[in-house]
Amino acid sequence: MFVSNFISEGIFVVSSGHSDPISMFNNLADQQIQQQTQFPTKMPRWFCPTVMKYYVLLHDVTEGEDAKADAIYQSMKSTYGAHVCHLLHINSRSIHTAESMKIDSNYPDPWSQFLNKPTESSSEGAEYDVSVGSGGSDDSAGFPGKVQEGTTEPTMMSESIMIESANEAIEASSGTGNGEIMDHPLALSTHQQNSVNHYEEPMSPDYTQVTQTNHTAVNTKGRSQKGNTRGGHGMCLTTSDHDRIRIFIHEFCVRALIPWAEKQMRVLNEQVSSRKGIHNYTSEAPELQMRRLADLAFLFQMYRFAFDTYHTAKRDFNNDHALLHCAGALEMACVASFMNGEYKCPFHYMESAITTYLQSCRATLVSTEILKNRRLYSEAALQFIKLTSEDSDLRSALLLEQAAHCFINMEVPKVRKYAFHMILAGHRFSKSGQRKHALRAYSQALQVYKGKNWSLAEDHINFTLGRQSFNLKQLENATSAFKHLLSENSKQISSQQSAFLREYLFVYKQLLSQEAGEFGLHSGPLPELPLPVLDNNATKVILGSRIQTSSGVWVDHNESNHIRWEKLEEALVLANNDGVLPITHRPTLQCFTNKTDNRYNPVGFVAEPITVEVYLVNPLKVSLILTDVTLLWSFLPSLAGQEKSQLITNEVSSSVKNTLADEIIHTQVIDEITLQGNERLPVQMTLTPHQTGELRVVGISYNLGVSQSSFGVDSNGPKQSQSSLIQVRGKQKLEVQGPRLNNTKEEKASKVYGPDRRLDLVIQQEMPLLQVSFCNFPRTLLCGEVHAIMLQFTNIGSSALHNLKVTSTNPEFFTFGCHGDLPKFPSVYQTVSDVPNSDKNCTCSSILKSDINISHVVDISLTNNSLQPKNTVSVPAWIRGNDIGGIHEIHFTFYYEPVQDLPKARYRLLRHTAVINTLESLSVRVIAQRGNNSKLNTSGPTGSCVLSCELENLSQIQAQRAYVKEIQINQVSCGSEQWMIHYLNSLQDKSEIQIGSRETMQLCLKAVRNSTTLDSMVGKESVNFSDVSFDDKQICSSLTPCADFFFRKKSNLRPLEIDMDSSTNNILSRNLEQDFSELNCAIQMGLTLIILWKACVINEDGEVQIRVGQHHVNVEKIDTCFTSYPFQSVPKECPPVRFIKSDDDEEKQKPDLEVTTQLVDFKVLVDTSKSPDRLNNQLNPSLNNDLPVPEHPHSSNFSWVGQTLTKVKLDPQQQRHIQLLACFSKPGIYNVNRLSVFVTYTDNSSEMILQKHASPSVVVISDVL
To answer: For the whole model, what pTM was predicted?
Structure first.
């Protein structure tokens, strides 16, 4: 109660230079008495009525006279008494001497230890560009250790526990970009410390200057501020003066103050001992005199006596229900006990006092200081929180902030509680108008929530920081805060993200306008924007443009086909180097991605485009609009005669510089790109160099804006122009990361990444550049269809090229023609009438084997063996549809060399990919059977063989889809060294053969061994072609393209991408066949049938088209079915390893599948003695024949009648005859052996095995009329 009052004493000080010091002393004493008597309730209040007066005569040695001062002092002692008077000499050093001593900075300042030292200026707000680390060595100096308060003694908490706890919840703040440290939140700041703090003070000497600059000047990097230099203090005081001051203080305490206090305590003690009961408290009541006695004892550090006196006064106040007086006594009793150093301090006294005071803060502040000194931070925080209310936002903010500091200074810091209460404090600071304090509180809380995946809390803090920074004109901090709201991990709804984006664009545009006004219009580099996000490692660099030359054919730069391109390139290099691959050979890359080997710099050429594909990712749910999108690059030209050239870049805003840069590297500009919410969009941009040198792609630049819908603009209203929307110009850097190295032990133990130079290009001089156009290239082909196309080769470069070659992954797909004269485009086949000097009645021709040259690599002939710049040459070609229906990709690689030898680029490649959809058309199955006059010998069957051909139209009529309505067989040709074919029909009627949709046709031919081969006539080996035509126009099967596709099919050119394992398996299988060559030769045929057909195709729109094609069937053996449809052998899987016991019975060994499918031999015998429309067929099965299910007939002209299902049991070597009846509706050739025979050799009838299809049984049905 009385601790805040003045002790009843007054020190009156008068200078010795005064004209009448005694009168002045009396006037001062009268003023004190007048104030005490007339205004007793106003400040200052006095401890007791009797005031002790102490008179000090201050004498300046350098200016005053010592004799005069002594005389005045003697007069004072005689007037007031010697024990209350003192003469103090000061300033023994002259002012001139003191001024000269100020220059010496080493001279001690006697007052420095009592004054606040100026600290380095630090900007307020959050630090956003802090490198976050969880295990760095600087974490021990993190943020929590900077907010300790309450005592200056070092904390007893373990440093290791502090570091571990801090790392769990917050990131270290010692790694800030400008080296700032977080001072105590309540530290007093001066105008030297922070220009922001003294900006609003009109009395500041820097006020005029600061108002002329922007508030964000403190945040501008690279600016220096001049601090006010301080002079020395007390420089005129000598050591003797210091001693005199100490003597004055000692005499005042010993001679005046302490005796007066002892006297007052005796008086008060006497009054307390003779007290009587009272009912009204006045200033002279005995209880209040006891309180005065306790306060006086407390002031003079008699804490134990003070505590006993407070305790006694407390009982009296409590008995008289003087609650406020009782609370005061309780409060001071607790403080006295604490100051006495007692371990068990009565904290419940303070709790009772605080509860009584309700809205008073004094007791809480005193109590919390005591609790913090005893390291009871949790109890102190609770007391701070208990006192917060809605009455005063500023007071509540201060208390919440102090509570937060209590949480962070606990033995195990509660950092999340600290951050939460700092946010509450910042909110109350903001409500009270204290924006700077609110900004500081939120900035400290952000250090805890940052990087902890508490995205919503972090968004709230960043948004508040942005708003507060903007209100304080700290535009740079505001921009950084709003930038962090646009992260890819944002969980806000679309409307909230749109609001964040609007705030960011608005503030950032103001910041750019401000910087443009201060430093000049866009004088520096472009700023980095947070949106959209670039997927850097997915960046592709494509050498050359992606031009679609024809429908279904394009320049291929897909990195997934890299292995195919490597094999095609190796084949071309081997063909050009006589089968030897150079040691220095390195595969040519035209598409560089994160999956390719990017250790070497890509090589580009002058005047050739370089395409860079970047992936733009919009992490937000709102649409983004990018305008004027372009690549950023830096270029170092290589000029002859200059060792070091000047680096050129296009990251400038000057139109003149951009024009010059565009002349060196022409840069494509995309007008507008719209990114929908959460969209990942690939964008391709091109650079065209016009000078040799080193080119580096550094990033992209663009204008960032938002769509009108994001701003809530009605789409039906008037459309705004781009200038009316908020847009900012910025950039994004492209920085790719190489593959992680994992070879050495050091690389495995640490994260080491290899180089990735896909964005660092080397530009070389101009080269020839080939462009290939595929004319008349179809999107759809029938299986086996032959189509004529035209290839146009154009040299769009500046120098000539030669040695043009091509290869493909499917060499049997195309041919350029190599046998005889070529058909005129767009014709496909040549007829006998088209060939001059040809015998129209001849059905046989031959080609020498020496003229046959089948290879993966094809040379393309050029006029004068070169192609000059800007010239074009057209070359006809023929393509054939794959025998398997579906979508097929065919890859072409064109190889060419410059006529002028260049050491760094010996050849160039052009890669194309074609996609063709093949539709099913015709299926051919052929079985060769020995004729009646055939004999077997070591050289194979002699005489003749019957070829039974089954032709089926696989196409089915479908609505709104193309299908084959009818297939007409024009001609069947045979290509063989020994065999010729003839039509097998006694009537020799070669009428048209037409096969409708899903119909099957039987065709019988006779193969005759040529006894007098053409080889004996010319003395050279040759391939003979014999034709059986069913059309008026016979096709020359020995000419292009029929013979070309025949030889390519017969040579069995395998795709280049087949792995070595399959090649090894093929070699092994061929070796096994060679072991039984003498046995196999007896049944070998060695002929190939070429079925030439014409199809009527109905397109989707109903248009009728006529297409032609050919199928090939290689007949290798007799009594074996061969088809035009290629079968792929599936490797047999090895059975799993089994472990069985020795006493268990082993499983019975089953025969091989090859054996079980040939258990019975059955054939169909036709009784020709019956009528032509009624035939008697006999079936000869053996063993256990069960459930012979007949197949569905391919034509309605032939069907089984009568019993069609039977079951028989056969003994070994037994034969059975089964009679079946068939009905034929019209004349023709029919295969009646269309039966399914199932056999089992065990008692289990469920294990039925389908027997292999035997040779056909052909019957000719003639008309009965």
So the answer is: 0.63
